[in-house]
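Hi team,

Below is the intake form for Uridine 5'-monophosphate synthase from Galdieria partita. Please confirm the fields before the structure is written into the shared record.

FORM ID: S-0412
PROTEIN: Uridine 5'-monophosphate synthase
ORGANISM: Galdieria partita
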Amino acid sequence: MHSLEALIVELYDKQVIQVGSFKLKSGITSPIYIDLRVTISYPSLLRRVVSCLQDICRSLSYDILCGVPYTALPFATLLSVENGIPMVMRRKEVKDYGTKKAIEGVFQPNQVCLIIEDLITSGSSVLETLGPLVKEGLLVKDVVVLLDREQGGEDNLAKHNIRLHSVLKMTDILETLKHSGRLSAEQVDELYHYFRSTPISSSLPPSAIKSGYKVHQLSFEQRLPLIRNKVGRRLLEIVLKKQSNLIVAADVTTSQELLSIADEVGPQICVLKTHADIIQDWTDSVSEQLVHLAKLHHFLIFEDRKFADIGNTVELQLTGGIFHIAHWADIVNAHIIAGPGTIEALSRSAEHCGVLLLAQMSSKGSLTVPEYTQKALEMAKQYEDAVFGFISLGCIGEPNFLYFTPGVHLQERGDSLGQQYTDPETVIAVQGSDMAIVGRGIIQSSDRRKAASTYRKACWDAYLQRLGDDK
Ligand SMILES: O=c1ccn([C@@H]2O[C@H](COP(=O)(O)O)[C@@H](O)[C@H]2O)c(=O)[nH]1
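The structure came back. Fields below:
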């Protein structure tokens, strides 16, 4: 038997390759699953795998190796040790203490880095590793994998000018398992049918790699249990049920208009964002009617009060005055400028309220420099029971927080007072934000229902575009 065929049969016999029904990271069910983590339990098999990778690496020129975490790390380590070529490692989670590095190891900008991966489906895991390497100035031209599932990975890497080299292709595996009698011809036909009918084409657009934002490809289902605040979890339940990550900013000045917007766009949105202090005829009855509409159409209410004072004042602003925000708002937000007292006050007095921190702003000349954004992240971590997300221009942190981006418009690029607009696809698929906040793009439309439906679809499609494959 040819050595690659023998390798495939061994992988099958050692249950690295399994046939059945398996859920992939993308949520898609696959009738075949390949778990190359198992190879670390069989040193001779591991050596064989690495020697096959080595045959390809020999033909390439590079200065440094990087294994995609976690499965490919032992492969890259063995290649590094056997060939005396240094290795770097991408952290899956960047720590908020110590050196806070995304890439561990010693390297120089402009060194050529060869990425080693165990298997590739659409290529999203490789692209997640590519981003931080490129950001550090490393050049990536080639990726070597043991197995190409032939589901779009090669084309998606090519869009980033990266060549894919694979030891095995899914076709080799299916043919060998048939010829060796491990699978029947009918089983193999069914598997071919699956691969023909389930193309996985999702990939991060090249701009996502360069945008500098973290673009998480975990689904909202996967992130739901990571969110500590219960309003944040409730929001994700609504998002998933309505397939809507659209928030409408109802910036109007009369209660009648506010309530009619809530009723018109309610079915399309996950959250209605209010500025109670711009409503000229606010009474408790307005909030009661809003809450009624929120229950009817199944959305949350976010009062965009942007608290920014010392804790004691914030407590009074939240609970008192003529607005009694704490009685009806599900979500409020705060600047971090006054320090943690602001958030402490919100977390104490808003038992049923989730908090968002303003980490970045959409307006021209905003003073939210990277250090400021970082401070917002640090503060959120201290108050994770209350804080479940950020107002930001994209994804700026870990998937246990949600990212809400204002300044979203399908046609305009800005207004005369410094607002800057980005389109939903860029905000969600490229910059990795989760929720798009749309004001005038919808409320100034002559048909708000239709506009809300158009934006809902654009935002949800962008979220689906962002979701990748993997294993
Ligand atoms: O950085 C920020 C923070 C908040 N906003 C608010 O979002 C809406 C945007 O309305 P558009 O009509 O879509 O411009 C508005 O309520 C702002 O107060 C923001 O725009 N930027």
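SUMMARY LINE: DSSP finds 19 helices and 16 strands in the chain.

Thanks, M.
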